[in-house]
Amino acid sequence: MSKVFKKTSGNGTIALYLGKRDFVDNVDSVEIVEGVVKVDPSGLNNRKVYVYLACAFRYGSDDLDVIGLTFRRDIWLHRIQVYPPTGGSEAKSPMMESLLKKVGEQGHAFSFQMPPNLPCSVSLQPGLNDSGKACGVDFEIKAYIANAPDNPDEVIQKKDTCRLMIRKIQFAPANNKAGAKADLSKQFMMSDKPVHLEASLEKEVYYHGDPITVKVQINNETNKTVKKIKISVNQLTSVVLYSSDTYVKEVCAQEFGETVNAISTFEKSFQVTPLLANNKEKRGLAVDGRLKDQDTNLASTTLSQGEKEMQGIIISYKVKVTLTVSSGGLLGGLTGRDVVVELPVTLMSPKPAGDKLD
């Protein structure tokens, strides 16, 4: 274990230790969250020590808490008592053994198993004048000293707590499948025959920062001209709490000047690359959750089993191919219309080399 993450309470009575802060969601299961709490019994005054793991949706700044409003909703929370110990000792992983060895005799181990239907760590990009913590889904481990685990009437002072933020992340699946395909035939005023558009993706999954290859095939049987081809990538952010709302933001768009004359065909592959660097000023854009000032990227597609409804923030992407069609003559652009198809695409990060997913 190369690094240990530690946070000590203000009074020095308890300290929280983790061997890592990124936990991988393999869709059907999530890595177990393990840690150790160091407890100095002399500072407890007959109280107990608890630790919880919470997945929460934050939809407002901490600054607003002072007026009695908490802009945070727990999606999932599980708490356990670590001191005094309540049960027998369980089998310990090598990481847990290493943490206990580092902490010494005052160390007390804990572990949490997150359910697979929780969202991943996601932040919504703040505006230029926004302050405080970003809105989004985050995961927090908090150790605290109290008389009872969850008594609303008990005031727990900040000096009796310590906490560390962690991330729940997903990586791209090892096996990449063929990409999506879509086609559409559309007829226009004053034309008996249609424009037929077919678009397809080279593969299903693309890594952040890699160009997306889109194959476009056009069969123009009309007397009109396809003036230009536009390819864009949209991020769809579904916020599922009390109800479900979906927000669409364009993260990449490129126009190509190729024209397709009347009664002719066309076939070509185009490439577009959605990057966070080109979307830094878009308020509300979803990005992968980060710890402190880490670099990040556009939020990864959310993979799920689809059996249980997931709450929080769910991310998906679509590639949109738009043909602008118009005819010549007196009516010109008045008789023009767009031909549009959309293709689902998965954007994710690759699993780090040598990383073993249990």
Automatic annotation (TrEMBL):
GO BP annotations, alphabetical order: G protein-coupled receptor internalization; nervous system development; signal transduction; visual perception
| Domain of life, source organism | Eukaryota
Q: GO cellular component annotations, sorted alphabetically?
A: photoreceptor outer segment
InterPro entries recorded: Arrestin, Arrestin-like_C, Arrestin-like_N, Arrestin_C-like, Arrestin_CS, Arrestin_N, Ig_E-set
Domain Arrestin C-terminal-like span(s) in chain numbering: 191-352
Q: Which UniProt keywords apply?
A: Sensory transduction, Vision
GO molecular function list: G protein-coupled receptor binding
Instruction: List the PANTHER family hit by this protein, alphabetically.
Output: ARRESTIN, ARRESTIN-C
Q: Sum up the protein's function in the record's words.
A: May play a role in an as yet undefined retina-specific signal transduction. Could bind to photoactivated-phosphorylated red/green opsins.
What family classification does the UniProt entry report for this protein? Belongs to the arrestin family.
Q: What name does the UniProt record give this protein?
A: Arrestin-C
Q: What is the lineage of its organism?
A: Eukaryota, Metazoa, Chordata, Craniata, Vertebrata
